[in-house]
Every structure is written in C-alpha cells, then in structure tokens.
Amino acid sequence: MFAIVPFSADYTEPIEKIENACFSVPWTRQGIESELENKTARFFVAVEENQTVGYIGAHFILDEGYIANLAVLEEYRHKGIATALLKKVLALADEEKLDFVSLEVRQSNFGAIALYEKNGFERVGVRKKFYSNPEENAVIMTNFIKENI
After folding, report:
1. Hey, which end of the chain has fewer CB within 10 Å, N or C?
2. What is the CB neighbour count within 10 angstroms for residue 57?
3. Residues classed as catalytic
4. Is the model's pTM score more than 0.90?
C-alpha cells in the first residue's frame, strides 16, 4: 500500500531519480530543490514501503493551477498511484477555490491522456513542438474545477 505525503527536502534525491527514469529532459536537482521555497508550489510524493515511487508537482497562482509534472516509476504503474496523486492536487485546488487546473502532455502519451480525461480534464489546445528529445507537440488539458462542483 502507498501513502501520499507532502514534499520535503528528504524527497529531493528520490524525485531526481524518478525524473531521470521517466523523462527525456528531466528536472535538475537544483530545480527540484527550488520548489521547496516556491510559495506557489504544491508538490506531493507517493511512498510505498519507504520507497519514493512517484510524485506530482503543481503551481497555484491566484485562481489557476498548473501541473508541472506527474511521474510514477514504471514498476509501480497501474496501481492507482498516479490517480491518487492527481486527485490530491485536484482536491486541494477545489479547497483553495481555483477556477481550473491545466497541464501539457505529450500527444503520444495515450495512457496519461486517458488518465487525465478520466479525472475531468478536457483537451483545450495544442502547443506545437513543445517537447524536445524527441520533438513533439503537447496536448493542453484543463480541468475546470468550478464546473465540476
């Protein structure tokens, strides 16, 4: 069983390892550490048997939320961890009375797109050549929190 806990300095190194395992252009340790001081940051970590297995990072600015990253180590996928992390941020967004939460996802990441759609996100646009290594468009997806209440 896993637990969702708030991000702290103890999780910087494990998140860096998840970034390196999951993304072709991962965040640096310095970038991850900077989120500890970022007042707009809302980061949570999934822990299973004392191992960090996933995380979500979002930024809440005024009445808007933006998910920067959601990642789960491959061997821990399909256990509901990504859904739990996403629901944690959406519940907090509702609690903090945000209008919406938005994100970008690689257009080829069909599993992530399905996860987001299942959790109330809609496709609202495309960012051309948003990703590199490999170059790819991003689908912009948004959950309009107030419409879901």
Report:
1. N
2. 24
3. 104, 116
4. yes
Residue tagged 């299942």 (tokens): 118
Sign of CA dihedral 94, 149, 98, 141: positive
**Distances from the Cα of 14 to the Cαs of 7, 45, 92, in angstroms?**
11, 10, 23
Residue 135 phi, psi (nearest 5): -65, 135
Orientation of helix 81-95 relative to helix 110-118, angle to 10°: 40
pLDDT confidence band for 133 (50 / 70 / 90): confident
To the question of domain 2-148 being in CATH 3.10.20.740, the answer is no
Burial classification of residue 27, based on how many CB atoms lie within 10 Å of its CB (0-12 exposed, 13-18 middle, 19 or more buried) = buried
Q: How is residue 145 written in tokens?
A: 């929190």
Q: How many CB atoms lie within 10 A of CB 53?
A: 20
